[in-house]
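Let us walk through a complete example step by step. Step one is to write down the protein sequence. Step two is to encode the small molecule, adenosine-5'-triphosphate, as a SMILES string so that its atoms and bonds are unambiguous. Step three, shown after the inputs, is the structure prediction itself.
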Amino acid sequence: MAQGDMAFFSRPSSAAVKIVAPSTQEPSSPRQSAKKDSTQRQCRNILIYGHCKFQDKGCIYYHPPAREESSPVPPDSPVPSAALPAQAVNAPVFVPKTISTESPVPAYAGQSRQSISPPSSGVPSDHQSVQSDYQEQEDIYDPFAYNGANDDTFSDGPHSMVNPYVNGADPAMMGYDGADPLYSAQFTFARQPLNYHLYTQSRPESLAHRYFISDNIREELQRRSESLYSSPAHGLSLPEELQGYHSLLPLEPTAGERRKFGNWYSTMYRATNSTDGLAYALRRVENFRLMQQAAFSGIEAWSRIRHPNIISVREAFTTRAFGDNSLVVVYDYHPNARTLYEAHVKPKAPQYQNGRLMTQSPRVPESTIWSYVIQIARAIKAVHDAGMAMRVIDATKVLVTGQNRVRISSCGVVDVLTYEARPEVALLQQEDLMMFGKLVFALCTNNLAAMNNFAKAVESVGRHYSAELKAVSLFLVSKPAPNKTIGHLFEMFGGRMLAEMDEMQNSVDRLESELMSELENARLVRLLCKFGFINERPEFSREPRWSETGDRYIIKLFRDYVFHQVDEHGNPVVNLSHVLTCLNRLDAGSEERIMLVSRDEQSCLVVSYKEVKSCIDSAFSELSRR
Ligand SMILES: Nc1ncnc2c1ncn2[C@@H]1O[C@H](COP(=O)(O)OP(=O)(O)OP(=O)(O)O)[C@@H](O)[C@H]1O
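Step three: the predicted structure of the complex.
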């Protein structure tokens, strides 16, 4: 809206409607005033929302007898469906000096619109003229407009599409307390350009939690975020910087008992790359002297492999930054990842069960093992098809990076470490299958050393799991043979493969629906940030535009309307649906009007969300220009 339109608000006498209290005694405080004259004063909930949910629960104000549900406002009443009559709040009719009392019908309004246009009597008509001004400017834009020239259903003109948000098309979804009959009448409106074209329906308070993603996903993502942004380690004598990586943080203990990676000790670190600012996982192999640059050729091949079940290899280098000759291989970092060993094999701390301290080692469900087997098999197939071998497949080198989601880590390291030996790839691929089989036995028996007693391991798998799973594990640990290939393994999966694909698609659906619940929140956060920038700025405290007679005063009152409402007992109303409904209508620039009441309850303003929006926009752009 053009700045000039706001002149309406800058005339103090025309902006405020003085509320004349019916009693001669002036209320000394808002709370006190709420208790006085309660038998004569009509309940404001009825006026604003069309109903009062406290009517039968002790609300002390006057509630007119209920009318027909579909028309909360009596036909003979001067109160329009979307506006508030001054009489209703015991105030004289206020007519701004410069604006006619006639109710100009906006140029676009057809029959159906007229029926919901505010009637001329009892309503300040100034907003209607503002409304038509808006219309002239905004007819240009209508992202939802349907040019239905040949379609009777849509022959109502370009603005006839229902905005679920503004119209309250589904009253049960719209109101402050669920239903909102005051605003349920059908009317059309001028659309303003929106940040997003789709708007959520507001929900009853009882379903407000569905505005956000579910708790378990949120908690998981928060844990990942914490792991991503936890501060780097101090006092560990780690290098400040190596080859463009800084802020090193060890991902495992660097002292005490340590296992070797082949013949070498190795440590995983999280580090930040200075070029892109992202976190990466660095595997450092200690005291390794690289004899020839060609040993990195394997890393180059690995860096070309991109697979959802393989942790991507980025680069490798040698460094003396740790005070020794170290080899460092850089991988994508998956925050909060755990190894299969940590997730399933590592003995859990003993817990009390039925009064006795028991060591827990819950068996991995068969469906989970199948999911792991299929994912790992797909990763191996991609690598074997590329003429390479995994070289390391064990419970400490397969990471769980989400719900049943696994990725093979540490690829490429062994290729560098054993470059001199250069064994035949076919042989290495057979070794991969053997390592894979051992991993399946380890998972089925919760024991890394299960293969040390092969007969017992086979018996255990047969007892606890299906014959198909047993057959797959036996195939993997069988002697090398021409038909023992990863491709042949897929033939053994049969229907399990289809079940896994179904599960994958279900999981995508679940995530998409979780994402939907967050869709509007970023937009609302930006709107709230605008409020934060604008409201309560000390430098405005002496500016006339922000005083009770200035045009910016409306923003303060709107903020009170959204966040600081009190019920008839003076208790704060904490209602998320109300806040979201108001903010969304504000963002949509709805024509719907609300009554803003000053803090001393002595005056009120009837304004549309569109006008508040315009006021906020101009205040914000002024702030940004300063
Ligand atoms: N790419 C990665 N992203 C995130 N975390 C990782 C990544 N790679 C490894 N980790 C984590 O680093 C930790 C150490 O990994 P590592 O492969 O050394 O496992 P380990 O169980 O310590 O095995 P080893 O005994 O061979 O050292 C594990 O907790 C693992 O989850």
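Step four is interpretation. Residues 495-518 form the longest helix (24 residues).
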